[in-house]
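Reviewer 2 asked us to include a model.

Predict the structure of this chain.
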Amino acid sequence: MSVSTLSKQLFKSASGAGPGRQVVLLWNGNSYDLQRRSLTTKHLTKTIAFMTNSNSPIKTGLPGARGTKKYWEYSSEGRPLSILLCWLMAKNNAVNKYANFYLDKGFDVMTVRISPAQLLWPTLSNSIVEKELMPILRDSDHKTSLVHGFSVGGYVFGQMLRLANENPKEYGPIMNTMIGQIWDSVVDINGTAIGVSKSVFPKSKFLQKSLENYINFHMNLLHNVATKHYFVSHEHFYNKPLKAPALFLCSEKDQISTMDVIQAVQDIWTKDNGIKCSTKLWENTPHVGHMQRHPDEYKAIVTEFLKDIGMRPPTQSRLIDSEKDKRNIYEPDMGTVVA
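Predicted model (structure tokens):
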């Protein structure tokens, strides 16, 4: 198909796409094809949304076993799931760039958000993980998934690992579907104060410093209410990790997600757990700003990582789903949690 013909068809198709439909160019191996994409977004809770190009119905609010609530019912039809653990104060337009990247590759996408208040009072964010996120993933029929976390998404994932360790029979299978993990500007407990302050007041250094001082005071004063939960998440993220290949995306200039923290995580994961870790280090991109500054390079790196772990949606190639291809990458650890 020539460029001029493609342009004419693109304009004609886009003008008649209608609400909830997008026109996209997909590479079929030899040339680009125009396809109308029917995008469905369903808010499963206030903090968790699900996005798909499929026309499969999404049923919510269903009764579950033993009187428990079943959040949803949906047929993935072999599509893998990308779980986006978002950064604080993430704007929809920014999150949608990552979501569209995966949707264009044949993935379904789930976005998970927590607020600064929910991070500072971890019992609130923990409740989201325990009563919403993990039950939703338990009800999902996706056989293969990937976690792509940003900044404080590392804290959320640490709590997911904690819950899977505490309830291996119920939630261990969720972790076994995850065959890869991507960490963009991941934050440790030491970066919590500066990370929250810059998210809430991005343009005022005075207010940033004031809030940073308050958060440090908050964490020192309220150890049993707040800080101990950060340490529990830290323990699971570092020492009881998901044993799947990991890609770290980071910057030398990032003062929130520092290279010494990322290196410490990688050392433990590689030496103690045999996890294959790879890193892309930019020189001066801002916190969670790599995609914005280097969109083509970012997408190429993630695409190559997906190929390396064998994550091929059925629209592109065979989905790895046979018994011989599955790997038990999550091993529940029932030992003592350091608080």
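Residues 39-308 form a domain with the Rossmann fold fold (CATH 3.40.50.1820). The chain has one domain: 39-308. We have added this to the supplementary material.
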